[in-house]
Amino acid sequence: MNFPKDLKYTKEHEWVRLEGDIATIGITDHAQSELGDIVYVEVESVGETITANEVFGTVEAVKTTSELYMPVTGEVLEVNAILEDEPELVNSDPYGEGWIIKVKVANTADLDELLDATAYEAIL
């Protein structure tokens, strides 16, 4: 399993990459592996402000559907439109082309509540 050191993680298996006050969010390598082949990603929250720990969408795999939880409070700026036609990118490149949303973070201190790579790996 791959857990990049420059990311923050949630216990629900989302990852966050912060650039300024913009967070890119996706699901971890572990999560995509557990879900299996992803066939659909649903996020319909562009323009909405979502509170940390609220559901912001779902990932549908061949064998199950899993809710996505917002790691930080913020306004959803963008959904990865490529996933509409190529949801399998979440499987093949979870930390790159398979990102799910970009959010303008309300308070970057929220990231202090998240796990670093070592702590995330320890809970698996």
What does this structure look like?
The structure is a single chain. The chain is of the alpha+beta class and 124 residues long. The protein has one domain: Beta Barrel (OB fold (Dihydrolipoamide Acetyltransferase, E2P)). The protein is 18% helix and 35% strand. The protein has four helices and nine strands; from the N terminus they run βββαβββββααβα. The strands form two sheets. The protein has a six-stranded antiparallel β-sheet with strand order 1-2-3-9-8-5. A three-stranded antiparallel β-sheet has the order 4-6-7. The termini are close together. The model has no long low-confidence stretch (mean pLDDT 96).
Q: Name the CATH architecture.
A: Beta Barrel
Radius of gyration, taken over Cα atoms and rounded to an integer in Å:
13 Å
User: Would you identify the regions where 5 or more consecutive residues have pLDDT less than 50?
Assistant: none
**Average of per-residue pLDDT values:** 96
For the biggest sheet, the summary is: 6 strands, antiparallel
Number of helices: 4
Task: Give helix % range.
Answer: 10-25%
Order of helices and strands: EEEHEEEEEHHEH
* CATH topology grouping: OB fold (Dihydrolipoamide Acetyltransferase, E2P)
